[in-house]
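Bumping with the actual sequence this time:
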Amino acid sequence: MFVVSYSGRPGHGRKAGDPVPALLAALEGIDLPLPPERTVGPQALAIADRAETALELVLRGVEAGPLAIGLGIGALERPVPAGVREIAGPASQAAESALAAAVTTSQVSLAVRASDPRHADTAADVEAVLRLIGWMIRARSRGQWQAVHELRADPTATQARLAERLGVTQQTVSRAVKTSGWREESAAHPLAVRLLSMIDLTSAR
């Protein structure tokens, strides 16, 4: 299982306001075992049972920032409770550890921890990939972000369709996509999923 813990970045709270409502709105529509919830203050929690879904939780969290994000991978105590705030087990503890590490980092505040120490190297590898993706997301202009957001929702959309949705010219969309690093980012997604799956499939569930 995957547990994703989010927290407003220290020092950004008053300036940015409460980030949780925007985060929860950004997470809507993702197929999750339990709905994500606010925990304490500017913090929220979500769980996923698939690597692809865990990646989506992380990506939307980075886009919704400024947030620190901790991803924990491992087992959860069974049965899974009715609310995500009541979860417990190694994956939950790993997410807490990851979040504690994430809040101390600069630029992309994201960390990954596996509950099984045998997977520490793989967790470090996927953390590096996710931070690189996160840096690309954070570096985008508003126009680039809008184009990529539409592509993430509909990867098969043509540039003409994107231009119509965004109310801009096709040339503007083409330039935004080329300079956004979207193709490079999306090419790294399968690697992140494989690394996450490697940890999850060999962890006790």
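The tokens above came from a reply further down the thread. The longest helix spans residues 182-201.
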